[in-house]
From TrEMBL:
Assigned EC number: 1.1.1.100
Reactions this protein catalyses: a (3R)-hydroxyacyl-[ACP] + NADP(+) = a 3-oxoacyl-[ACP] + NADPH + H(+)
Protein name: 3-oxoacyl-[acyl-carrier-protein] reductase
Active site positions: Y140 (proton acceptor)
Domain spans labelled Ketoreductase: 3-176
Record-level GO BP terms: fatty acid biosynthetic process
Species of the source: Streptomyces antioxidans
Enzyme class: oxidoreductase
Length: 234
């Protein structure tokens, strides 16, 4: 059956791979984008998740065209790496505002329709770094760890309404975000990964799609690592 799916930040990178995976399976997929030309084949809604009115407007448009959102993938995220000594209030709060508060905002709005429908699937994109920590990424790691507590609280709150809330924690994925690293940094990362390579965005998308499938109906509050073995045990 074709479901109404929303992927935030579905215009590029991991989000785009996730959007494609759902569309290929026959779902009606909406994506958010902030600027430029969004990719074709989806209902693209302009939405910055740090702006409550834009989130509300995006949901109205999606509900009008695709119906209530049944599957939400909160994928939009940013980094602002800096050692603690040099990390400004803004570096910290901007990352938290997008990765954690922005996710709260889109999940809260989706929850309204899911409660009414008495079903729903929420998948949050965290990171291995949220579990292991990462020097120079205290803001990002804190935001990604926060998503785990957030998801697990909601899993308890919403389970009886047939709404599952899960987290996917990718390792290093070949996207614009990691292409910003220099060659030395990229080489060092690969040395630590048991599978000795970066993930392709499609490899993250496969787990997300599974968590939203009927086969995963009894999985909630889980953190699924898709990290090539990098975070084993965390
Ligand atoms: P990219 O930098 O390639 O893409 C980030 C996406 O998030 C873009 O679509 C961007 O939209 C969107 N976005 C950022 N801020 C906002 C905002 N305020 N409102 C709406 N959309 C926003 O990143 P990736 O594809 O690599 O990452 C996707 C997710 O996966 C992120 O949450 C990231 O933290 C996580 N992740 C990535 C890993 C990696 O190695 N790449 C590893 C682990 C987790 P726009 O095009 O408008 O900028």
């Amino acid at each position: 059956m074709s479901r109404s799916v929303l992927v935030t930040g579905g215009n590029r990178g991991i989000g785009l791979a996730i959007a494609r995976a759902f569309a290929d399976a026959g779902d009606k997929v909406a994506i958010t984008y902030r600027s430029g030309e969004p990719p074709a084949g989806f209902l693209a809604v302009k939405c910055d998740i740090t702006e409550p009115e834009e989130v509300e407007q995006a949901y109205k448009e999606i509900e009008e065209k695709h119906g209530t959102v049944e599957v939400l993938v909160a994928n939009a995220g940013v980094t602002r790496d800096q050692l603690l000594m040099r990390m400004t209030e803004e570096d910290f709060s901007d990352v938290l505002e997008t990765n954690l508060t922005g996710t709260f905002r889109v999940v809260k709005r989706a929850n309204r329709g899911m409660l009414r429908a008495r079903k729903g699937r929420v998948v949050l994109i965290s990171s291995v770094v949220g579990l292991m920590g990462s020097a120079g990424q205290a803001n990002y790691a804190a935001s990604k760890a926060g998503l785990v507590g957030f998801a697990r609280s909601l899993a308890r709150e919403l389970g009886s309404r047939n709404i599952t809330v899960n987290v996917v924690a990718p390792g290093f994925v070949d996207t614009d975000m990691t292409r910003a690293l220099n060659d030395d940094q990229r080489e060092n990362i690969v040395k630590q990964v048991p599978l000795a390579r970066y993930a392709q965005p499609e490899e993250i998308a496969a787990s997300v799609r599974f968590l939203a499938s009927d086969e995963a109906a009894y999985i909630t509050g889980a953190v699924i690592p898709v990290d090539g073995g990098l975070g084993m045990g965390h």
